[in-house]
Specification:
Blueprint lengths: L3 H13 L14 E2 L2 E2 L22 H12 L4 E4 L8 E6 L5 H10 L5 E5 H6 L21 E3 L11 H11 L9 E12 L10 H11 L5 E6 L12 H11 L2 E4 H12 L2
Helix pairs in contact: 1-2, 3-5
Length: 265
Amino acid sequence: PRDASDIVHDAVAKKHNLHGLTLNGTEDNKHVNGEQKVQNEDDSQAGVTANADGYCFGRESVEAAIEAVALGEIVVVVDDMDRENEGDFIMAADLCTPEKMATIIRYSSGVVCIGMEGERMDELRLPAMIENNEDPKGTAFSVTVDATKEHGITTGISSAERAKTMKVLANPSSTEIDLVRPGHIFPLRAKEGGVLARDGHTEVAVDLSRLAGRHPSGVLCEIVSEENPTEMARLPELKRFCKNNGFVLTSIVDVAQYRRDVEGL
């Protein structure tokens, strides 16, 4: 039987036209060694901007992302060109595995966060990291955490142990005594209303997890450039990265418009 990764790969290929089609559906008639090559339009779009219909990559990119997140896969979400112009790995926290965490750490900044609803953070006694938040984008960092040794945590830094902490944070049965402070996971407080209230990766992580039918908490981490290792990956490179590695690519703009459509806003 096919496993989840096979299903997601097929969904990505179909919805994002990765096999011989560009993201906007234009067929590529070039062939190299007898194989159809995706037309290289990656560098033609420097960042995410909404089209007249409110979407950038299209509604189908959000639908594919929701399907992937529901199956425990990682997706890539880009914010607005005039905001950070960065891409984050995002996945459902309650489905995080050591292998997925290792993938995230390998290609990212390594500062792995979890977007959570404010009410749940209050239940877990996760206060703001600092009273006077000076972050330019208003990212609402809380105190850092690890799960306790009762959950099999030793140092808390390995992929396996960070994945365990994610699952503890996403478990509705967990309480404040299941966590130690400080730790290696950065909980972030999402704005009520999600991406319709704040166009941040924190909010889209929560929104995508909820839309996928998972616990409303999502793993997120910024993707570092492989082509310019001292920089963050921008949209042209992120398009190539997603095509080469089979990740669904969507944007905060697209998720916001999708919510407006399906919620009748």
